[in-house]
Amino acid sequence: MKINKILIPDNISKTMLQFEMIPISFYLYENHQSQSSFITSIYTYRLAIVTNGKYAVETKGFQFTIEKGDILLVPPFNAYNIKCISKTATCFILNFNIKFHNKENKLNLVEEKNILKFDNLLNDNIHSFLQRTYNMMINNEYGHYYLIKIAIEKIFILCESYYLMNNNIEQNIDNHYTNRTQECVIESLRYIDNHLSENVKVQDICKYLNVSQSYLYTCFKKVMKTSVSKAIIAYKLDRSLEMLQDKDLRIVDIANNVGFDNIYYFSNSFKKCFGISPTAFRQHYM
């Protein structure tokens, strides 16, 4: 029997070694048929892993379904509308950023700009690992952050392998906007993030970018498939999810931190977006 004394990285491992996964948040959503939410993935990658039921997804005019076993990879600056179309459905959500060490080779999935759906990719081992890691997180057990990082890497490797070996990946392709259009949206989102606790207006962004409101609206409609004002609110609500993990923060403080002066407006906006109130979300998921 031949024994290799030195391990040599395979192609996918070489790719993974070029960057580091930085976990941002980890949730387990339980949805019902009556719930519908508009979710925006901004500045982070998102993995949605369906563990039960079925969802209808719409993004940039492209419609498809995801069901038990499917995995959705959402790169930054994509928006999608998702609705539970079975009696109930559950889905793990992993949000993460990527820190590059170098970028010598083609990074495949990391370079993707569009939402990708991977059919029936979740196996029992990954599902069990996700559930154990999630339980550790909600119980605040030592090592849970590192295991979340490992979970992201495990799933990303699964997706990357499938991506390289198969062409049967449902994806949304929208090349009807230019790099300048996307850059305008990205700079707008950076402005919102830098002024998160302020009541950001559309005209504030226009002044900062030195563009007209009509041009900015066109950019957001093409890239995010939503208006600028809705994108501002969606981003602030997305950031509030992270803050809700800190149980020492009062919900009124979180509302102020993301620029909502009125706690009732914040709660109503949150429920409209995610189908659950901030208080119920914290009690149920944290």
The residue ranges in which pLDDT falls below 50 over 5 or more consecutive positions are: none
CATH architecture level-2 label of the largest domain: Sandwich
Number of domains: 2
Overall body shape: globular
What is the CATH topology of the largest domain? Jelly Rolls
Q: What is the total tally of β strands?
A: 10
Structural classification: alpha+beta
* CATH level-1 class of the largest domain: Mainly Beta
Characteristic terms for this protein:
single chain; 286 residues; alpha+beta; Jelly Rolls; Arc Repressor Mutant, subunit A; 2 domains; four-stranded antiparallel β-sheet
Can you walk through the features of this model?
- This protein has 286 residues and is an alpha+beta fold.
- α2 runs antiparallel to α3 (144-165), α4 packs across α5 and α4 packs across α6 (213-223).
- The chain folds into two domains: 11-171, Sandwich (Jelly Rolls), CATH 2.60.120; 179-285, Homeodomain-like (Arc Repressor Mutant, subunit A), CATH 1.10.10.
- The chain has ten helices and ten strands.
- A hairpin with a 2-residue loop joins β4 and β5 (62-67).
- The protein is globular and about 60 Å long.
Topology:
Blueprint: H1 11-16, E1 19-32, E2 36-41, E3 45-52, E4 54-59, E5 62-67, E6 71-74, E7 78-84, E8 88-100, E9 116-118, H2 124-138, H3 144-165, E10 170-171, H4 179-194, H5 202-209, H6 213-223, H7 228-243, H8 251-257, H9 263-274, H10 278-285
Antiparallel strand pairs: 1-8, 2-7, 3-6, 3-8, 4-5, 4-7, 6-9, 9-10
How would you briefly describe this protein structure?
This protein has 286 residues and is of the alpha+beta class. Helix content is 42%, strand content 24%. It is built from 10 helices and 10 strands.
